[in-house]
Each structure stands twice: as C-alpha cells, then as structure tokens.
Queue: 2 jobs
Job 1
Amino acid sequence: MTLQYLLLGLIIGGITLTISGAITAQLSSTHNSGLQTIQQLTGGGF
Amino acid sequence: MVALILSFFVFGALDYWAILTKHQYAEHLMHKYLQRIQVEGRLSTADENSLVAAFTSFSCPVESITAQRESQGQPRILRNPGDLDASNVSLRITCRPVPQPLLTGRLIRANVPGAGFRIIVGGSMLSERVTP
C-alpha cells in the first residue's frame, strides 16, 4: 500500500512539475515580450 | 513553483498596469506643459517647478528636461510663419519610476528591466509667441 502511495505521489508530482514548468516557460516568454514592448514604448518621445 | 506562478498572476498584472498608467500620466503632463511652451515660447521657471512637482507627485521624479528653458537663461522661440523650422518648440522629459517596475518577472525567472529603466516622453509644436 505504501509503495502504491509512493508511486502515485511520484506520478502526480511529476505531472505537476511538468505542467508548471511548461506554464512558467510560456509566461516567461510572454513577459519578456511584454517587457520589451514596454521598454520601447516608455523610451519613446521625440 | 505553483505558488510563484499564482503570485505572478496576481501581482504581474498590477505591475504592467501601474507602469503603463504612469507612462500615460507622463504623456498627459508633457502635453499640458508643451502647450504652455507653445504660448510662452519657452518653458518658464514657474512651469518647470510645477512640472517637476507634478511628476514627483505620481512617483516618477524628473531626471532631465530638454526644452528651451527660462531657468537656463534661454530666449523665447517666436512665431515665424516664413520659416516653420525656426519656430519649432519641443519638450522631452526623462523620469525614473519609483519603485522600480516589472520586478514580478523574477517570480517566473523571466527578464526584469535594469536599474536604468526610465520613462521618456516628448513632443514638439510650433511656437505661437509673437513678442519676445
């Protein structure tokens, strides 16, 4: 029983880590793009 | 990691909103004083002090002002229909948002702007000032 719980924990933990890693990568990419846009916008003027 | 992502969702949006609002406010103020320059032919000392105080009031202290300024002893730029380039007046303001914006990127290991992040707004018009 303990082994089953351990395996279940590993599977769920692995899935959670994979999904959150993918979300973080996507968010990071979007954030960097937004940051670049904001820097161009706020560094404007003429 | 999940907590960091959730924190980013909550505070990241506030971060973007705050800096874009500051930029919008800086643009509005720049246009307000540019119109005064258009009438005056230069940025008067009183207007300059008022401008600096206005920017400080929304946590964006002015770092530099590029314009024809009375405080620097510069003469007025006068209306000149014969040579429009000669009657061009401009205003460019560089300010530093406080606190430093967009730091929430650290939560998701993304880029953050350096300490040199500044808001720069500016514009130009033709002077309407006739008398020196």
Job 2
Amino acid sequence: MNKADAIEKAKKVKYVILDIHGIMTDNTLYYTQEGVKSEAFSLHDRLGVKLLTEAGIPVALLTTKISRADEQMGKIYGIPQERLWGQGAKMARVDQFEAETGIKDEEICYAGDEMIDLAVMKRVGFSVAPSDASHEATAVADYVTAAGGGKGVVRETAQFILQAQGKWDQITEKFK
Amino acid sequence: MALEKDLNIAKEKATKIKLFCHDIHGVLTANNIFCDIEGNRRYGFWHMDGFGDLSFMANGINIAFLDTTSIDGEGLFRAKELKLDKFYYSVTNKMAKIEELKKEMNISYEEIGYLGCEISDITPMQKVGFPVATADAIDEVKAIACYITKANGGRGAMREICEFVLRAMGKWESWVEVVTKKGYK
C-alpha cells in the first residue's frame, strides 16, 4: 500500500460501493436462542456515509443478499432502497451500474474483504480493505484501513477520500 | 510439546480428505454466550466460516457438524442456514458417529479431517488422517494436530483451513474464479 498513490486514486472517486459483511459488520453472525440472526454495525460508519453523501458522493451496498437487517441499516445510514444491491455476481452488478450511469471504473471506490470481492477490487479506481480482511484482499487494496470490519471502516474511508479531494474541512463544518 | 508442525506433511495429508468434521463452540464460535438482563441468549458465528463450509461442499468434501455443545440449538440454526445435509445435533459419542459416517461413505480414517479445540476432540483427532487445531485450542489438542490455524475459534479458523486444504489439493484458484464470477451461493 502506497499512501501517495492511494491519495491520487481517491481524488477521482465519485461513487462508493461497499460490501456489507466484514466491512460494515464485525464478521460475526449472532443467533438468538430462538434462531433469529443479528449483526453488529458501527455508528461511526453512519457518519461516514452521511459525510460522503453530503459531499455528493453516493454510497451503495453490494452483497449476495440484502437482509431485513441490511434494509434497516440502510434507513439508519440514509442509504435509499435503490442503492441496496443484492447480487452474488458482483462484477455483473458493477457492469450494469456503469452502463446505467456512465460512471467509470476509476471513479468508483469499492471496499471488500473476501475472495468474492477481489475482481471488483482490482477493476475499480480506488479499492479499500479493512485491517482484518483476508490476506488476498489486503494484498490488492489501494488502501487498508486501521479499523477492522464493523469498527469504523466506512468512517475512515470517507475521511481519506474527502481529505484527498480537499473537501473535508468544508463538509465536516456542517456536522460540528 | 510438539507445537511446531511440518507444513509439507500437513499438505500431503490434507489432499486426501473426503469428509471434514467439527464441533460448534470453540470452533465456529469464540466460546461466548451473550446473555441479556432478561436471560435471552445469543451466540456469535464468524460469517466467513460459512464460506469455508460451503467451499468444502462445492469441491466434493462432505462437512459434518458433530454438535455436542449447543445449548439452544444454535448449531442447528447455523447448519440450516448453510443447508448442510450432515448435521448431527446432541451427539454424545463423536467417535461412534464418525465410525458410522466412515462406513456410510465407504472411506478410511485417512480420508477424514477434523478441526478441534477441546478435550472432547482428542479421541477423534488421534484417529483421523488430518487433525487440525484452532490457535486457541488446549495444548493437548495442539500437540496431536498436524496443523494449527492462525485464527482462533470463532474468528475464521474454518475459513482458513478450507483455504489450506483446497490450496493443497490445487483446487483453490479455480474455485476462487467460480466464486468471483457467480457468487458462492
């Protein structure tokens, strides 16, 4: 990971796509005694999403299947339903997105942590992995966050992008 | 105690397996129970361990949960989510169950792998061809394992051993390609 390169790449970002499990969650699925599944998200990331959105950089979530928990978190984070993408074939979903919007690979930031994310991480302009991602993911990432999954990865990524683009001070002013 | 493992021997043994067995707590979980003030309990499972189990099955290696430790059926919830066909709940005698599976699948001990962490795992691990211990297993278990994962139980041990085995078999790269194109479900 070369920080100067990462900053150059982050400057071009217009759209952020995030994997959910291991990025916005701490990799753990909690089952209650009744068999109800739940996950732990970070409130730091809520601010991260809001800062990016405020700066005109939309955030989308891309995972194999969007659960009701993901929908609920979408509401809390302020990510609209149409940007919750449930599809296992992630490359195909990014192809579709680019065809619809005209946004290019180098204008996309993608955060992933696993094998299923590697192809997308390699094609986009700015790829991010949490510190506790699989070693394959941290090896290809342009930027590896200090935070582990579910512990503020999105907040940190947002700060990195907005500082690279020189928008940080202006955007955060509104949240002070 | 023999905690230094010969990777080449482990790889050689890993290439032979057709069945991989493990318990629930301490392997798929970090041995934690979360209990709220009303007494409601919940259990944490490492998300990508599911990828480990699914990857084994997709590559022709059967998975058997030999659940001796579930309290509320949490192992069952996890097995259902992964759509496992070999799930054994409330197993009292792991060795007898392994014998049964061995006969049913018509395989030898050499073709069985096992991921363990506790006293109850020692007997099966002494028998099977590819015994593996989690990083936080007890020393007796680590001593008889031919490989020790870097990850603790409930922190990706299953994901790690899956990659180790499929790499040893030379199947990992092609599997990753499939997963990348189609997703893993």
